[in-house]
Structures are given as C-alpha cells and as structure tokens.
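7-deoxyloganetic acid glucosyltransferase
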Amino acid sequence: MAANQTPVVCPPHVLIFPLPLQGPVNCMLKLAELFCLKNVQVTFLNTDHIQQRLRSCTDNVNYFKKYPNFRFETVPDGLPEENPRTGDQIPNLLNSLEAVAVPIFRKMVSSGGMYGPDSDKPITCIISDGIFTFATDIAKEIGIQLLYFDTISPCGLWSYMCLPKLIQAGELPFKVQAQSLFWFRFDDNLDEIIRNAPGMEGIIRRRDLPSFCRTKDLNARIIQLVLKEDKHIPLAQGLIFNTFQQLEAPVLSQFRNICPKIYAVGPIHSHLKARLAEQISPTTSNSIWKEDKSCIPWLDFQPSKSVIYVSIGSLAIMTKEQLFEIWHGLVNSGSRFLWVRRPGSVLGSEKDFEVPLELSQGTKERGCIVSWAPQEEVLAHPAIGGFFTHNGWNSTLESIVEGKPMICWPYFVDQQVNSRYVGEVWKLGLDMKDTCDRVIVEKIIRELMELRKDEFLERADQMSGLAKASVSEGGSSFQDFDRLIEDIKLMKI
Ligand code: UDX
C-alpha cells in the first residue's frame, strides 16, 4: 500500500510458503485446507521438486481441485534435481531458495505481480516458515501482514529463541573455556541443567538442546541462520503453532511476551479431520514417497497393542552400525514390529543392509518392513502399541493424538527438545537420546511394550483425550483457529 493510499479491506487471500520439506509441507497443506473450509482464498507456493513428488506419490493435486478458492503455484528451489533434500542439505536449500525462489516470490506479490496490491487477487497475508527471514522485508515492502508458522515444536522453537542468552551465559554443550592464550578446554557437561531458558526451568539439560548447539563454531551457518531467525520472529504480526494450549502452556506464554497474537491451532492433522468430519469427507495424503499400504493388512493380523512402529521421518539418517544395533535390539526384544526403511535413510549403499540370516529367520512372522507407510493410518491401528520415533514434530503429535507411547531417538533440530518433553514433562514415553546399543534398545522396548505398558498407555490415553478436545468445538485450538480467521478477514492492504 503506498504511503498516501487509504487501506482497503479486500477478500482475504493468504499466500502460504512452507520450507519445502516433507514435515513442513505436510503440516502447511493441512492448514491451507482448514482455510479453504472457511472460504479464505489460498495460494500455496510449493517448489517444483516437491510438487512433482506430490503428483507422483499422491492424488493430492487433484484432491485440492474441489476447493475453487485454492491454487498451487510453484517456484524452482535452485538445487540440481538429483540433489538429496536431506537434513544436512538444509543450509544449501535455504541458500538456493534465496537466490532463485525469493526473487520470483517477491515479483509475484509486488506491484505489477499476479498477486500484487494492484492485481485482481491481491495477497492480504503471507504465512511462511519462520526460517524465511526474507518474508518480513517483503511483507513490509508491499504493506501486508506476515504470520510466521514454524512447523517445529514451540518448545523446540523457544530453545532457538533462547540461543543468544545461552551463548552469552556459556551454556551451550561445548562451552569453550580459555585456559591460556593457546589452550582451550571444552566443557561438555551434557547433563547440566540449562538455566537461561525462561519457561523451561529445570527441564532441559545441555544434551536436550537442539543438535546444532553441540558446536564449537558459533560462526557455523546453522547457528547464524537461527540467530537471524530469532531477530525476525518478533517482527511478525502473529505466530501460528501446531500445538495445543494444555500441552505447551508455559512455552506459549513466553511467546506471548514477544508477539501478542499467538494462534495454537494444533494438532493440525487432527484439527482438519475434526472439521472435515462435519462434512463427512476424507482428507488426503501429502507424502512425497509412495506409501506401501501392504502393512495395513499385516497389522490386521496382529494382536492389539502388540506391534512397535519404527520410523525416523523424512530427513533423519542412520549409519549401518546403528541400523544393526536397532535391528538386533528389536529382534531380541521379542516384540512384533513394523519398520519404515525410507530410501536413503541409511548411510552407505543399499546392498550393505542384507540382514544376517539368523536375524531374518527370527522375524519373518513378527516383523514387517516397508519403505514408506501411511503413518497416520498406522498409528491409529489398534495393533500398534508403541512408536520408536525420531520425534519429528508431526510424528510426535500424531502419536499423541492416537494415544501411542514413544521411544525417543532424536536426530536433529527440535527433536532433542521434543524427546526430553515426551520423556520427562509429558511422561508419554522413554527418551533414548545419544545412545544406540542393541542391549539398551532391547531393554527399552521391553519396558515400553511389556513392563510399564499399562502405565504409559494410560498416560497416552489421557493426553490423547486433551488433544482431541482442543480441536473439537469449544476447544482451545478450535477457538484459536476461528480467531485466526477473523483476524485474517480484517487485514487490509
Ligand atoms: C522435519 C523435522 O525432522 C522435524 O523435527 C520438524 O518438526 C519438521 O520437519 P520430519 O523429519 O519429516 O520433519 O518429521 P515429522 O515432522 O515427523 O514429519 C514426517 C511426516 O511424514 C509425518 O507427518 C508422518 O506422518 C509422515 N510419514 C513418515 C509418513 O507418512 N510415512 C512414513 O513412513 C514416515
């Protein structure tokens, strides 16, 4: 809006720009559909790479055609097609997005652009991942509002926000203490409780901080990215979170101190299901790998709560040694298991992973392995009694909603914090961070699936009830979403 123009209220038109990875895209597409149900115009900005994979693995592009107020737009992500979009590639992905996608995005929403203020469908609000710090400048340039939606956990994001204080207080895991001009000591007391994370007092230790905090190089790209994000998050007109009030009240109140408009609308997958149920219509998969549904009939033949589901999400990877430690632990535990072996999730060439015969003999009737599962359907299946997970935030919430206890084996970013909260605060499972030993794996599976099974199932069932209540009419997430819609409808350009 030019300085001398009077602001006008246009039909609400939200442009959603997710971090182009499976977890964030999955979550943001569910938010997009929730907006569609409220007749908000939505433009979803995917990368060509993600869009192509969605087309080849799901029917979701056709699915969204039922919403006349929804459209996909795509931009190149700037990476060679063959590049693996894995966790270690995130800084490169962000670099190439800034170089290639952002100029196209800026042109799209600026004056003269197809969704600019002078177009027939002007964008009235941008919703993007908080790591996209460019979004604050672009929203300001064109005079529209910006809502940040970090699809990681609020407790994880809050630990990011505390990073400057933690660095200043020397609380990062590898605190560098100058002993003399030439001699440094690294203090890696990982079990020391963190004191400079308000709202998390007495909860997280150094080892529970995000993986990138385990660094001796504060100039590392990821540290600099997070410090920059810390400065931009408070500049948004509002923050959207995929969580619910009863799960993370202390952390949400910390965020209210830096940004008054907070919308806790999660668990978003469950929220969407609840609102679609009113129309008796199903939702769609947003997987970027082909789901192998053969695991469902296999589960149908397993006793109730007898199977542990093993999956490390879309970005985590493990070494061959870790693979065999988990495999031995699973087999020796005697538990039935459904294991997702995502293509590219194990370092090294696929041929190395032939499981020793004596292990495979012992598992054919009680183990099922797929390359990618219909995870929400799997977690909802009565045969599943536990989830061996990396604690990606979508997976964690999906497990909470279905009342399935967790064994937490975090890989990176917010997962370390999530696994601490699951184990120590919400008491919904056991935290196995920083270990991968067959004896421990066997013991922890027996503890979750046998020895303390009833205790964990009872806790998980209680939290599941709170999660479902929050997205039902009158619930906190239901109300926050309706408030979000009202606020978006009042936005002017
Ligand atoms: C990433 C980060 O890892 C995570 O910590 C952050 O919170 C979001 O971005 P990802 O690793 O993919 O996400 O984990 P997660 O957040 O759990 O998302 C994975 C999604 O893929 C889930 O919605 C899950 O249901 C789905 N999935 C996973 C499948 O559909 N099938 C599978 O076999 C495995």
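thats it. The first strand starts at residue 13 and ends at 17. The CA atoms of residues 257 and 284 lie 37 Å apart. bye
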